[in-house]
Structure formats: structure tokens, C-alpha cells
Design a protein that fits this description.
The complex is a heterodimer of chains A (263) and B (281).
Chain A lengths: L20 E10 L2 E11 L4 E5 L6 H9 L6 E6 L2 E2 L7 E4 L11 H11 L4 H14 L15 H14 L4 E5 L7 H16 L4 E5 L3 H7 L2 E4 L4 E4 L12 H16 L7
Parallel strand pairs in A: 3-8, 3-9, 6-7, 7-8
Antiparallel strand pairs in A: 1-2, 1-4, 4-5, 9-10
Helix pairs in contact in A: 2-3, 2-4, 3-4, 4-5
Chain B lengths: L3 H24 L3 E2 L1 E2 L6 H12 L2 H34 L1 H14 L8 H7 L3 H26 L3 H8 L5 H39 L4 H10 L3 H29 L32
Antiparallel strand pairs in B: 1-2
Classes of the chains: A alpha/beta (263), B mainly alpha (281).
């Protein structure tokens, strides 16, 4: 593990303002099988909102809907006040499963969103190399995804999502399949990588520790509650009384949450 | 596993053994229910082959057959991939073309000879049409399956990068379906050979199939065997070309240790380990 290894500066250019995402009275799910009813949620520009909830409560559904991959069944979803619409480069999605294209090298995967935006070859390459350095993968740039570890693939996915300079990053348990140490390293890498951007982040996880560490606020999906995090993104605050109390509150809320119908 | 040279020696021995058996059976006019009395021997066939290689007609026949198969197969590859992809991706095209394809598919291409004669002004175009029809269906069907089997999350990833329909097609669907498409192309080139030779036997003026049948009608049995050997060699050549091109294009597919390709050195993880990375939430 190379740790965070962020040696180079953020890619040039002023980052775009993060999106304000609003969900009002939304019914989400597949047609005929709604999993979320009457959901209200507001994500402020540039904040990191973590979303926790038991398995099957609709965390992925919420993210896929925010990404525009799944139309809402009811209610209103908007970005900066305008209706959300279909998928767009504004809202990048980082998947839990391996969504790298297996026939493209790590570098070529990171170049893909830049190619879609029509950047010239040289600039694509330079920006991708910058991101590879930021996530500590320069020496693996030319490798195919199946020749690197799961943690390295997730770092590539993160770099690919951020390389397109989205105004919102939607993350669906991106570190869910990683071991504990790799996972902690990835959390810090994410915090560092986001520092240069002003992107709004919605981060879904079932890990309460992760939610409390990464989030400015924690949304409890089963209950409709949103809690403020006293010391966001400070490892040293892990054992602070306020942080411990928040973790207890989150766990207690989740324990009280109604059991989801789908298991 | 045996050392490479033992395996090579074994393969060579198998071929030489078969040739020796043929030589003995033909030379001694063996007649054990199966009759080898009229069979040319290996040496007769080899002499005839050497003689033929020196004639312009032989090379003209080979060129004719190769031109026909390359033209027909290339048309089938392009149209087969296009139609297969369209059927798999578009409900409209699927409704319009699906039933038609299902009815036409079981017709052996060689049964289309009368149709080809009616449709096309020249024999030549008819033969190319038959060759095309032979490869078109395997390619189309393989493409349709392969496109439907492309991992959905790849497409969703490109959509959330702002990619449109054509970008998804170019960057996800076609490369993702390629391993499956190549299966169809391999089958297609084989069926194409069967059909180009048969069509030449029925209605050709040149070509390896025409020459082989011609030799049979004038009782030149060594010539028939030269024709068969030529067909075998050309078939092997084109199949290998398709196979090698395919392997170059799909070098990214993780191959198992038991697969046909050499296992990459220094591999510690099994490729299957990738698929087990946590269930959906």
C-alpha cells in the first residue's frame, strides 16, 4: 500500500461550484416495486453527505436515481433548482462493483471521461497522468484492470470519476469490498482528492464508522433523520465524546428502523 | 504436462502414421469391405500436387476461391455485426428483423443456389452471395447474444460520464461483445468454406471446388485428392488468420490456466477473484 501519496498539485483550472441536490417527496425504485416512499433530502453545494441504512433500504436506488440512471416514480428531484433529467457528466457515479472497462489500461480508463468531453489527446494524457500520480498508480498506468489489486481498481475508479470534473460525485459503497486497512487508506485518499474540487458528494455506506468519519452530515435512510458530524474527517476525533455519541445515535436509529420488506 | 518437444513429436507421428496407413492401403489395393483399389497413393498424390503447383491454372483457382471467400466473409462480418447489434439493442429493429432472421436462419446456404441463380446476373456474384449467407447467420446470432451479455455497469459508467448512444456503442458495446462476436466469426469462416466449395462444384467456372469436381468427372483421382488437400490447407489458413486476429483484439480477456493461450507469467490472483467482490446493497 502506498498510502495516500499525493505528491502533485491538483489539475489546473478553477473547479466548478458543487451542485445543490434536492429530493422532495420522492418515490424511488423500479416501476411496480418502489423501495423509498416520500423521501426528502437536501444536499448543500460542496458538502459531503453520507447515507447509511440497512441492506435493502434503497441506498443504491437513491444514488442511481440521483445519477439519472433510474427515473423517479414520484416526487421532485432537482439540481440547483432545475429538474434532474437523465445521466450527465455533472453527476459522476462511483460504483461498488468493478465498473472499469477491462480492455482499457488504467490510464485509458481515466482518459475516457476526458475523451467524451472532447479534450485533445495530449491534454487527456496529461490530466490522466496527473490523476494517476495523485492516487499513487503512476507505475501501473499501462496495466489492464484485472492485473492490479481491488484497492488499485477502486482508486482508478475514483480518479476516473473526478477526472471528468463533475459537480457532484455519487459514491455507492465504493470501498465496500476492500479490507479494513486498504479501506482506511482509501478514505483518506478520497478526502485528499476532494480537497482540490468543490464537488458535492453523496456517499452511501453501511459502515457507521466510515459514515461518521467522511460526512459533514449523516443521513439515516430508514428513519428520515439527518445528523450533523461534530468533527468531520478528523481521525483524531474518533474517540472524542461527541463522535462516540453520534455513532451511538446512528446505531440506535438504525436498530429502531423498520425492517425493509425486501431481503 | 509433457515437454514441448515430446508433444510436437507426438503430433508429427500422428500425421505421418495416417499418411503411412493411407500409402499401405492404396498401394496394396486393400479391399476389406471399404475398397481402396481405386485410391491414389500418397506418392501419386504428392507428385500430382507438385505438378499442379507449377501450373497457372492451380494458382488461378486458388485466387478465385480466396477472393470469393474473403469478399463474402467480409460482407457477412460487417453486416452480421451491424444487424446483430441492432437487433440486440433496439426493440424496433428486433421486432422488424427478428422473425425474418429466425425463418431464414435454418435454410442451409447451399440450398440458396437456385435463389442465387435467379437473383444475380453472374455466377460469380451468386457464389459470393452463398458464401456471405453461410457466414452471416452465425455472425449475427453470436453478435446478438454477445451484445445482450455485455455487463450493464460498463454502459452505466459511460452514461454517467456524459457519453451518448454512439459513445456507448463504440466504447462499451462493441469492445465488450467482441469475444463473443469472434466465436461467431470462427464458426462463420468454416461454414463459408463449405459453401464456397459446394457452390463452385455446382456452378463455378474456376475455383478449387470446381477443379476438384472437374477432376472427378474426368477420372483424375490424384487431382481430386490434390483439390481436397488444397481446400484443407486454405481452410486452415483462413481459420488461423481469424483466430490470431481475434486473439490480438481480445488480449484483455483474462484467460484461465487451462485455456488455449499461454498463461501470463507471474499471475498470483485468479481472474475469478474479481467477480466475488461483494454483493449489491
Amino acid at each position: 500500500m502506498t498510502g495516500t501519496g499525493l505528491t502533485t498539485a491538483a489539475p489546473a483550472g478553477a473547479p466548478a461550484q458543487g451542485l445543490r441536490l434536492t429530493v422532495a417527496g420522492a418515490v424511488l425504485g423500479r416501476p411496480g416495486a418502489p423501495v423509498l416512499h416520500g423521501l426528502d433530502l437536501e444536499v448543500a453545494p460542496g458538502e459531503i453527505l453520507t447515507v447509511v441504512g440497512p441492506s435493502g433500504c434503497g441506498k443504491s436506488t437513491l444514488l442511481r436515481t440521483l445519477a439519472g440512471l433510474l427515473p423517479p416514480l414520484g416526487g421532485r428531484l432537482s439540481q440547483d433548482g432545475a429538474p434532474l433529467g437523465g445521466p450527465s457528466a455533472d453527476r459522476a457515479l462511483v460504483f461498488q462493483e468493478d465498473a472499469l472497462l477491462p480492455w482499457r489500461s488504467l490510464r485509458a480508463n481515466i482518459e475516457l471521461p476526458l475523451a467524451i468531453r472532447g479534450l485533445p489527446r495530449a491534454e487527456r494524457r496529461a490530466r490522466a497522468d496527473g490523476w494517476l500520480a495523485r492516487v499513487g498508480l503512476t507505475e501501473h498506468a499501462g496495466r489492464l484492470p484485472h492485473r492490479v489489486s481491488g484497492g488499485q481498481r477502486q482508486r482508478t475508479q475514483l480518479a476516473r470519476a473526478l477526472a471528468g470534473r463533475p459537480r457532484a460525485v455519487l459514491m455507492d459503497e465504493p470501498f465496500g469490498s476492500l479490507d479494513a486497512r486498504t479501506r482506511a487508506g482509501m478514505q483518506e485518499l478520497l478526502v485528499e482528492a476532494l480537497r482540490g474540487t468543490r464537488a458535492t458528494v453523496v456517499f452511501v455506506t453501511h459502515d457507521v464508522d466510515e459514515a461518521v468519519f467522511l460526512g459533514d452530515r449523516v443521513a439515516l435512510l430508514g428513519t428520515g433523520r439527518v445528523l450533523d458530524v461534530p468533527h468531520p474527517r478528523e481521525r483524531s476525533a474518533h474517540d472524542a465524546p461527541a463522535t462516540v455519541a453520534l455513532r451511538h445515535e446512528v446505531l440506535a436509529s438504525l436498530a429502531d428502523a423498520p425492517t425493509p420488506e425486501i431481503l | 504436462m509433457s515437454a514441448p518437444w515430446t508433444r510436437r513429436a507426438r503430433r508429427a507421428a500422428a500425421v505421418l502414421g495416417a499418411l503411412a496407413l493411407w500409402q499401405v492401403l492404396a498401394q496394396f489395393h486393400v479391399d476389406l469391405w471399404l475398397r481402396f483399389a481405386q485410391f491414389p497413393t500418397v506418392t501419386e498424390t504428392a507428385r500430382a500436387f507438385a505438378r499442379r503447383l507449377g501450373t497457372a491454372t492451380y494458382w488461378q483457382d486458388v485466387t478465385e476461391s480466396l477472393t470469393r471467400i474473403v469478399t463474402g466473409f467480409a460482407l457477412a462480418a460487417v453486416l452480421g455485426v451491424a444487424v446483430g447489434t441492432a437487433v440486440a439493442r433496439s426493440p424496433l429493429v428486433s421486432d422488424l428483423c427478428g422473425p425474418l432472421l429466425e425463418v431464414l436462419r435454418p435454410i442451409p446456404a447451399i440450398a440458396l443456389v437456385p435463389v442465387a441463380i435467379l437473383l444475380f446476373p453472374s455466377n460469380e456474384q451468386g457464389i459470393v452471395f452463398i458464401t456471405f449467407a453461410a457466414a452471416f447467420f452465425p455472425v449475427t446470432v453470436a453478435t446478438r447474444h454477445a451484445v445482450r451479455a455485455v455487463t450493464p455497469v460498463w454502459e452505466e459508467a459511460v452514461l454517467t460520464m456524459g457519453g451518448g448512444r454512439w459513445r456507448v456503442l463504440r466504447s462499451v458495446v462493441l469492445p465488450g461483445a467482441l469475444p463473443g462476436i469472434l466465436g461467431g466469426l470462427s464458426v462463420g469462416i468454416g461454414v463459408s468454406w463449405i459453401c464456397v466449395i459446394s457452390a463452385e462444384m455446382i456452378s463455378g467456372e474456376y475455383g478449387v471446388g470446381y477443379r476438384t469436381w472437374q477432376d472427378y468427372t474426368v477420372v483424375d483421382y490424384p487431382g481430386v485428392f490434390v483439390g481436397m488437400a488444397t481446400i484443407g490447407l486454405l481452410g486452415r489458413l483462413t481459420a488461423t488468420a481469424v483466430e490470431l486476429t481475434g486473439r490480438r483484439l481480445t488480449h484483455w480477456v483474462p484467460r484461465t490456466a487451462h485455456g488455449p493461450g499461454p498463461a501470463p507469467a507471474g499471475r498470483l490472483r485468479t481472474p475469478a477473484g474479481r467477480a466475488t467482490s461483494g454483493g449489491p446493497s
